[in-house]
Amino acid sequence: MSRALYSLLFSLLLPAVLLRMAWRSRRIPAYRRHWSERLGKVASAMPRQAVVVHGCSVGETQAASVLINWLTEQHPEVPVILTHTTPTGRARGEALLPDVARCYLPFDLPWLVSAWLDQLQPRALVLMETELWPNLVAACQQRNIPVSLANARLSERSFHGYQKVRRLMTPVWQALHWVGCQYRADADRLLQLGTPVSRTEVVGNLKLAMPVAEAIKLKAAELRQQWCEGRPCWIAGSTHPGEEEQVLDLHIKLLQRQPSLLLLLAPRHPERAREIIELCQQRQLQVVRRSLGEQPGQSTQVVLIDTLGELMLFYGVADVAFVGGSLVAHGGHNPFEPLQMGRVALVGPHMFNFQSLLEELQPTGRVRQVGDVQALEEAVSQALLEPAQDGLEGAGVMAAPGHWIAAILAQT
Fold this sequence. Notes:
The protein is an alpha/beta fold. It contains 17 helices and 14 strands. The protein starts with a helix and ends with a helix.
């Protein structure tokens, strides 16, 4: 597929994309906001000549927050703009970096990204993990705006997907000014796809350097006292369709062992709240909703966390965490957040999106992979007997902050 064909197909699909956003806004009102930003309009207050860092959703935004904090500490004179694709990412960005300018990244169509770049005239663009947009990168290259890929990761599955669109993506890989990879396996795959050898290096995972805000720790302790005083509590975070049923059935079995056990259920997509409420009611589980401000009582068995940007908080409320997307073949989600809050992180068999991180953290005993839902039952029961541990802030080997910043700002 050529970039011209990609742009044509994207143009034809844009009305459907907008309709889908409008439909999703019925459940998530945040999708109704800032549409002009997605169409390339820049607010007059947005700083020019800034370093633009793109944190697509929650995970990328969290990694971006570490990088932005380093950048502002070392170069306070350089303005920064944090961009997003999803409302959940934007909400997380507002919580982590309230003083940083932010907007949505425009749709990746030539006339939208060109107009956007001409208005902002950014000093550099930093894309997080694998958030690569062909027209955006090409437009930056035409304007001599260096583009870096920071905290880069690439699963085996994504690697094979990119191989199928080599004609479209090879110019993108070759245009990158610097590629900072999380692990050696990520670098090896990216090099095979075409990133420049002299500009690709392994520098570690930014999320390993992410501190936990003291306010989050205090709020978690407060909610823990209010909700879980005298009762055990576990959380299933970032769950997907097909997982909630397994988690709820598992919770029923665990209640037979510990009748006071409380489950915090946090679906990856909070707009699925009604569907999950029905699953709870079918199983005669007493459930309350976080988004409605409902408080769990002694008879409450499930709290549905159907809000944006609070997952790390609730990892700190629970005693044990299961990280979803891993009982079904989704590829898992990053298990690092519960570890930061001092909790054991349990994951299912499908963790191919985070295999390198899993291999790094499993030897610590803080991340435990189970083969199926039956094994998860035993793992949750065992972990509930263990005391919480300190967080893993700063764990892992990483290049110094100055190395990251120098690599990104070089040639600007």
